[in-house]
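Sharing a chain and its predicted structure for anyone who wants a worked example. Both blocks are below, sequence first, tokens second.
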Amino acid sequence: MGDHDAPEAPVRRQLTELGVAHEVMACDPELADTARFCEAYGIPPEDSANTIIVVGKGDPARYAACVVLATTRLDVNRVVRRRLGTRKASFASADETRELTGMLIGGVTAFGLPADVPIWVDRRVMDRPRVVLGGGSRSSKLLVAPAELTKLAAMEVVDDLAVV
């Protein structure tokens, strides 16, 4: 494992500790972004789920990880902002995401996150037979049944977290 794979260590550790049934898919780091990944590897976008770190502006800032299907759009201005309890919310920057999770955009996953970060999963994700998530780095993805996400203590299913 090279230095760029170091973020995968906490992800793999949590998958093992929780007994999460999963398959690791190797990924060319240049193709890690969702649209390119789906096209290159023949994964339907409706079976690809993005884990997006959001931040509620305040002192201190409040963070959450949101898991939504690639065919939907995260409702940051209404649902996320309201759930964070802040006046303003936005997508965390690439630097904020890396600082909080140790992961790069394109590799962020719901597994291996800090214990104090809530994980909100759009209900539509749970309706899929399986989804592809980030693998902790840009060089891997995880294929899991959405029910496996319920093994995460900080996970909560949220209706209409995303919009179509």
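Comments welcome. The longest strand covers residues 49-56.
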